Amino acid sequence: MKLNSEKDLESKAPTNSKETSRCFIAFDLSRECRQEIQKIQDLLKKKGLFLGRFTDPENLHLTLKFLGEISEEQLLKVKKRLKEIKMLELHCELGEVGVFSKSFIKIVWIQLNGRSIFELQKQIDQQLLGLFEKEIRFMSHITIARVKNVPDKKSFFEYLKSIKPKPVKFIVKSFVLKKSELFLEGPHYTDLEEFDFD
């Protein structure tokens, strides 16, 4: 479509990054869970089977929904709707290590088991209906590394299969709306608001 005026150009211009926030909804992990994940990360680092970046221990979390760049107005609506969620505490257990695609390896994750995690995610989707699309396929996982290259895929997958995380159990009593800022050294997360379960 042709733009005929400066006003049109302004209306079609990308939103100024200062007016938006890159946000997601998540919950944090217990100390024991983080420690177990860090042990697995150390094993992978020593093995050196891929090139990439490991998630900093303080940034480990489970993402329930990624919202992307949203305006201040949208942010206020999200906060208001998330306050309506009613849940009991979540019982979680650390699961297996894996990747999404064996042919296109981008992320190494650890699964987090717990039926109530999926119930919470569905409630979040329902509350944000009309503002954001529902998740097509939600998987309860914790990103522990982002992969750039795997020289020997066979050895990589054999080693992943051999890793048996300790089935750490913990209880989650709240979830958080977080802001993500991207830097060369990695992302920085800020908690915007915490939502406690009843």
Structure overview:
With 198 residues, this protein is of the alpha+beta class. It has one domain: Cyclic Phosphodiesterase, Chain: A, CATH 3.90.1140.10. It is 29% helix and 38% strand. The protein has five helices and nine strands; from the N terminus they run αβαββαββαβαβββ. The chain has a five-stranded antiparallel sheet. Strand 8 and strand 9 form a beta hairpin. The radius of gyration is 19 Å and the shape is globular. It starts with 5 loop residues before the first helix and ends with a strand. The N terminus is likely disordered.
Helix-strand blueprint:
Elements: H1 6-12, E1 20-28, H2 31-47, E2 51-54, E3 61-71, H3 72-82, E4 90-99, E5 107-113, H4 115-127, E6 141-149, H5 153-162, E7 169-172, E8 174-183, E9 186-196
Antiparallel strand pairs: 1-3, 1-8, 2-6, 4-5, 4-7, 5-6, 8-9
What attributes characterize this protein structure?
198 residues; alpha+beta; Cyclic Phosphodiesterase, Chain: A; five-stranded antiparallel sheet; four-stranded antiparallel sheet; 9 strands
Tally of strands: 9
Taking pLDDT < 50 over at least 5 consecutive residues as the criterion, the unreliable ranges are: 1-17
Q: What's the CATH class, please?
A: Alpha Beta
Calculate Rg over CA atoms: 19 Å
Q: What's the architecture, going by CATH?
A: Alpha-Beta Complex
Helicity range of the residues? 25-40%
CATH topology: Cyclic Phosphodiesterase, Chain: A
Looking at the structure, what is the overall shape?
Answer: globular
- What is the typical, i.e. mean, pLDDT? 90
CATH homologous superfamily label:
Cyclic phosphodiesterase
Number of domains: 1
